[in-house]
Specification:
Blueprint lengths: L7 H28 L5 H6 L3 E4 L8 E6 L2 E7 L2 H6 L33 E5 L10 E3 L14 E3 L6 E3 L19 E5 L2 E4 L8
Antiparallel strand pairs: 1-9, 2-3, 3-4, 5-6, 6-7, 8-9
Length: about 200
């Protein structure tokens, strides 16, 4: 017979090896193509939306992401931090956030957010662009004996509450800015896109 000398085991091995190497090559070739679907660094800095997983953010914790080349703080506020907001109104420069450039209309409320628990803000001081430090605990601090949690800018000592509202008598002229954002679901936040139907 013509194929008596054929080693079928070796043929199967070579066929399987060729398929594996070919599959790996196709995968390597596909990776750069798939990456082209993702926003480039240039597109992100120009304002492409940024998606953030918030499923593991603990109560009282802050995570930082980047959008348009700026840090964006995502904070899961405690009930105590939320409860203290109204008590600070008399100490703030703009407690009702009347300056519409500081936040979208859907976040123009006491807690400056869509959901009371979640605060989303650009982490840049409105004075000279420093990055304030997060001091979330409600306890006396060297810069404020009656501190109810919030942000302190070490550059020029501006203070902001847990909604990013600026205290009166500090160098920062306005509240910290809230960007457009929305919740895709309970685990995912998108920065740079308004909620559906929002003005």
């Amino acid at each position: 017979m013509a194929n008596e000398g054929v080693n079928h085991g070796r043929r199967r091995f070579l066929t399987a090896t060729t398929a594996v190497v070919g599959g790996a090559g196709a995968l390597v070739a596909a990776v750069p193509f798939i990456k082209t679907w993702l926003p480039s660094a240039k597109a992100k800095s120009a304002g492409a939306p940024v998606q953030q997983d918030i499923s593991k953010v603990e109560v009282g914790q802050m995570v930082i992401t980047e959008w348009r080349g700026q840090p964006v703080w995502i904070i899961r506020r405690t009930p105590e931090q939320i409860g203290a907001l109204a008590s600070l109104n008399a100490s703030l420069r703009d407690p009702e956030s009347k300056n519409e450039e500081q936040q979208p209309k859907y976040a123009q409320n006491l807690h400056r957010s869509i959901k009371q628990e979640w605060l989303v803000m650009i982490g840049v001081c409105t004075h000279l662009g420093c990055s304030p430090k997060f001091h979330g605990e409600i306890k006396p601090e060297p810069f404020d004996a009656q501190w109810k949690g919030g942000f302190f800018c070490p550059c020029h000592k501006s203070r902001f509450d847990m909604a990013g509202r600026v205290f009166a008598g500090v160098p920062a002229p306005t509240n910290l800015k809230v960007p457009d954002y929305h919740f895709v679901d309970d685990k995912t936040l998108v920065i740079g896109v308004k909620p559906e139907g929002a003005a």
